[in-house]
Design goal:
Layout: H1 4-18, H2 25-36, H3 40-55, H4 60-74, H5 78-91, H6 96-108, H7 112-125, H8 130-142, H9 146-159, H10 164-176
């Protein structure tokens, strides 16, 4: 029987390759700028604005909850962050960034199986989420699945070519893992 982490990695790979990009005109414009602008300041501004959109919410309670979760995470109060993020994914299940933040917390806590579940939800809602793709690659590395890590990193760089450290990681992995059918 397959290891639960391996099974979840396979599930996230399927989601990564099949999820539909949502109809979000402002994000579409920003992603085009992120990939196509010649000026690095324009690309950096587009990336910052993408994060602002992802982290924002039209519901003021959601925005407050996100700020509270981020503060708890940054101050090392993982229990409070976990409680806040659990509430957020239950109350606003269509908010990709709530899932992504909880995935990040779970990654830091080395709860990779749970983190992979949350990454899967994030990518179902926003397949261009380069943060989730990069985190997925990190978990694949920790699981010693070089092929999947490489796929995740390469996809993250396709979405956001400005991820220099992710690009470098992909170069290193490409040397270790010759192309095979996955």
């Amino acid at each position: 029987m397959l290891n639960p982490i391996v099974m979840r990695i396979e599930q996230v790979l399927v989601t990564m390759m099949t999820a539909s990009i949502p109809n979000t005109p402002e994000l579409d414009t920003l992603f085009n700028l992120l990939r196509g602008a010649d000026d690095p300041h324009d690309r950096a501004g587009a990336e910052q604005r993408i994060w602002e959109i992802w982290s924002g919410h039209e519901d003021a309670d959601a925005a407050r909850a996100m700020r509270s979760a981020i503060t708890a995470f940054e101050t090392g109060d993982s229990t409070a962050a976990d409680l806040e993020l659990n509430m957020m994914v239950n109350r606003w299940p269509n908010w990709a960034e709530a899932w992504n933040k909880r995935a990040t917390l779970r990654f830091v806590e080395q709860r990779d199986s749970d983190s992979l579940d949350d990454i899967g939800h994030t990518l179902e809602l926003e397949p261009r989420h380069f943060g989730a793709l990069s985190g997925f690659g990190q978990i694949c590395l920790r699981a010693r699945d070089i092929s999947s890590a490489l796929l995740a990193f390469e996809q993250a760089v396709v979405v956001n070519p400005n991820l220099d450290s992710v690009r470098q990681a992909a170069v290193v992995l490409r040397r270790q893992d010759p192309r095979t059918i996955h």
